[in-house]
């Protein structure tokens, strides 16, 4: 198949999954064309069968905000026409599904045919899409897609509820990892640069948005550090970083907290983590938790959203109500002070990640769904 993929190229779960999917599909013999305003951050090397097309957005004095959505639609149309794409797969509904719909209609107007598959990732539905400014266009765009997928059953339910479209046939295809990349190899992570031999490494990776409850990460760490010698390592950046730094300073933990900023790859770092904290308000899936589990890192986080479909509470991690930092700290202390308990969770996490979410299990789900959509099925 010839497949166009559009995603946000910046750091974040949707872009990471879309890029890894493209790489996996190219390895399986498909021709993949990425279409975006910048090269996806995980697309760093030449890869046979994979091409990148940069969307040019011209700036005219008339436009206070350059119309990226329209420029993207034009690029999608041109690349579909010039390369004979069979299908466009867009990740994140706004504006990609809208641009994809426009491009598909332009292709059809010229007598051609291309199918549009939209994958919903989370905040495109739970936050952005429910904003009154975008609700109607989000609903329209997902309903006009030829195929719809969601990364979790939780997100599937949220979409049905938020957009009142019971007729939308949303296929749940979860996120995935490459077990060869995400595995515990502590010799690669330069642990001595992060902590001393007697300290545990507690890690959090995100885009530091409010929904991630970054201050709860600091509060949980503060409580566990009263019992366990440890260091907190933050990876990523975003609007809540200053608040997290201020709270660490207020709690006199500043010297035990390290901010590494954005990194293109986190597999090596996760290899030397002892615990991963993800106390988010909600997670549509929790890709970074899956990556941690694949590296043998137990996860402590919030129950009640998509994370519960990834972390098996009491087996691969501990999940507690949102905001219950005391319970999260207690679970963290037990994991970090009981070697046998930690080892069982570490092994179970790795096994669960590989058995349930390995790329060679999930990517064929997309291939079968593409074939179904091309044959006239899907939504």
Query: Which radius of gyration do the C-alpha atoms yield?
Result: 21 Å
Largest sheet: 7 strands, parallel
CATH topology of the largest domain: Rossmann fold
The low-pLDDT segments are: none
SSE pattern: EHEEHEHEHHEHEEHEHEHEHEEHHH
Number of domains: 2
| Secondary-structure class | alpha/beta
The helix content, as a percent range, equals 25-40%
Mean pLDDT: 92
**The CATH homology group name of the largest domain:** Glycogen Phosphorylase B
Helix count, DSSP H or I runs of 4 or more residues? 13
Q: β content, as a range?
A: 15-25%
Adjacency order of strands in the biggest sheet:
3-2-1-4-5-6-7
User: How many beta-strand segments?
Assistant: 13
Which architecture of the largest domain per CATH?
A: 3-Layer(aba) Sandwich
CATH class of the largest domain, anyone?
Alpha Beta
Q: How far is the first residue's CA from the last residue's CA?
A: 20 Å
List the helices and strands and how they pair.
Blueprint: E1 2-6, H1 13-27, E2 31-36, E3 50-54, H2 68-83, E4 87-91, H3 96-109, E5 115-120, H4 123-126, H5 135-143, E6 147-150, H6 153-163, E7 170-172, E8 200-206, H7 214-225, E9 230-236, H8 241-250, E10 257-259, H9 267-270, E11 275-278, H10 287-294, E12 299-302, E13 317-320, H11 325-337, H12 339-357, H13 359-374
Parallel strand pairs: 1-2, 1-4, 2-3, 4-5, 5-6, 6-7, 8-9, 8-11, 9-10, 11-12, 12-13
Write a structural description.
The protein is an alpha/beta fold. It has 2 domains: 2-176 and 359-374, 3-Layer(aba) Sandwich (Rossmann fold), CATH 3.40.50.2000; 186-357, Rossmann fold (3-Layer(aba) Sandwich), CATH 3.40.50.2000. Helix content is 40%, strand content 17%. It contains 13 helices and 13 strands. The chain has helices at 13-27, 68-83, 96-109, 123-126, 135-143, 153-163, 214-225, 241-250, 267-270, 287-294, 325-337, 339-357, 359-374; strands at residues 2-6, 31-36, 50-54, 87-91, 115-120, 147-150, 170-172, 200-206, 230-236, 257-259, 275-278, 299-302, 317-320. The chain has a 7-stranded parallel sheet with strand order 3-2-1-4-5-6-7, with helices on both faces. Strands 10-9-8-11-12-13 form a 6-stranded parallel sheet, sandwiched between helices. The longest helix is centred in the last third of the chain and has 19 residues, at 339-357. The chain is elongated, with a radius of gyration of 21 Å. 49% of the residues are buried. The model has no long low-confidence stretch (mean pLDDT 92).
């Amino acid at each position: 198949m010839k497949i166009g993929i559009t995603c946000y190229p910046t750091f974040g779960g949707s872009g990471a999954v879309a890029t890894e999917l493209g790489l996996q599909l190219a390895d399986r013999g498909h021709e993949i064309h990425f279409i975006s305003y910048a090269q996806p951050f995980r697309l760093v090397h030449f890869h046979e069968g994979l091409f990148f097309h940069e969307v040019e957005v011209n700036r005219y004095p008339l436009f206070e905000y350059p119309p990226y959505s329209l420029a993207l639609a034009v690029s999608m149309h041109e690349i579909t026409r010039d390369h004979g794409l069979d299908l466009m797969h867009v990740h994140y509904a706004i504006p990609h599904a809208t641009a994809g719909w426009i491009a598909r209609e332009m292709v059809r107007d010229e007598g051609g045919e291309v199918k549009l598959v939209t994958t919903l990732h989370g905040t495109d539905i739970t936050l952005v899409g429910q904003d009154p400014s975008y609700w109607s266009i989000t609903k329209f765009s997902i309903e006009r897609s030829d195929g719809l997928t969601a990364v979790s059953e939780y997100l599937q339910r949220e979409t049905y509820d938020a957009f009142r479209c019971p007729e939308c046939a949303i296929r749940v295809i979860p996120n995935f990892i490459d077990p060869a990349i995400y595995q515990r190899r502590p010799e690669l992570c330069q642990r001595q640069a992060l902590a001393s031999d007697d300290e545990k490494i507690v890690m959090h990776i995100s885009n530091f948005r409010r929904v991630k409850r970054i201050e709860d990460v600091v509060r949980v760490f503060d409580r566990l550090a009263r019992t366990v010698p440890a260091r907190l390592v933050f990876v990523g950046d975003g609007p809540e970083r200053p608040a997290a730094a201020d709270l660490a300073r207020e709690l006199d933990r500043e010297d035990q907290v390290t901010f590494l900023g954005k990194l293109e790859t986190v597999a090596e770092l996760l290899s030397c983590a002892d615990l991963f904290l993800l106390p988010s308000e909600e997670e549509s899936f929790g890709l970074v938790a899956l990556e941690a589990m694949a590296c043998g890192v137990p996860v402590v986080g919030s129950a009640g959203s998509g994370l519960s479909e990834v972390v098996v509470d009491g087996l691969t991690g501990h999940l507690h109500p949102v905001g219950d930092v005391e319970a999260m700290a207690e679970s963290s202390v037990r994991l970090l002070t009981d070697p046998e308990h930690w080892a069982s969770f570490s092994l179970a996490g790795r096994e669960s990640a590989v058995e349930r979410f390995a790329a060679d299990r999930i990517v064929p789900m997309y291939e079968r769904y593409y074939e179904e959509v091309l044959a006239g099925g899907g939504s």
